[in-house]
Amino acid sequence: MKNYISAISITILFLCFFQCKGQTNNTNENYTFQEGSIDGIGKFYKGREISHVMGYQGINWLERPDREKEENTSRLIKNINIAPGDTIADIGAGSGYHVFKMVSQAREGLIYAVDIQPEMLQAIRDRKKKERIDHIKVVKGTEKSVNLPENSVDKILMVDVYHEFSFPIEMLTSMHKALRPDGKIFLIEYRGEDTSIPIKKLHKMTEAQAVKEFRANGFVLQENIDNLPWQHCMVFIKE
């Protein structure tokens, strides 16, 4: 009887060990789950912890007066080299800060403003109506898809948003489908290599990390335009 109880006790200990281990370090085919930082969601992709999404409550920060000075957004728009007939998707468009800067240059084209937060999309609709702009199309995306037609866009812009995607593989797959064969992705992220930039670690990315993730999903880095004060401007194309 004593031996039987001991065997049961050992079995319970092993079960507890593996159960606890599973709760702190789970994996599936693509992502790893473990205890993360205060700014992250405890989900990792290729060694990078995914950050929390900035909610619509941060809309004033997106529209802050100092943004042009801090980020040189005018130069960023020049980097995109927008042609009048371009179809461009701003993924994670937020309040539409960059959408409304691009729309006058793509005057014969179309700008897709894609976001998952209804409050952000409503802000874009309100301004679009107020300014009587016809060639902006508001699109509600999901955590796994940009919800754009296949082979529909010439350029994709993502500004300080990719690091927040809960499903980066699925999102990159949907963008790969939406992008035309000669299309480009402009990935804008605060430089993770520079500790002096006053942005939280999980809201930055290194070039090496971005290349690792994009290469795994069918993209190659064409160039990194190094002319912004704090951010990478990485240009990816289909392999």
TrEMBL record:
One of its GO terms (molecular function) is methyltransferase activity. SUPFAM superfamilies: S-adenosyl-L-methionine-dependent methyltransferases. It comes from the Bacteria. Residues 84-206 form the Methyltransferase domain. InterPro entries: Methyltranfer_dom, SAM-dependent_MTases_sf. Keywords: Methyltransferase, Transferase. CDD domains: AdoMet_MTases. The keyword Oxidoreductase does not apply. The keyword Methyltransferase applies. GO terms for biological process: methylation. PANTHER family: TRANS-ACONITATE 2-METHYLTRANSFERASE (PTHR43861:SF1), TRANS-ACONITATE 2-METHYLTRANSFERASE-RELATED (PTHR43861). This is Methyltransferase type 11. It comes from Salegentibacter salarius.
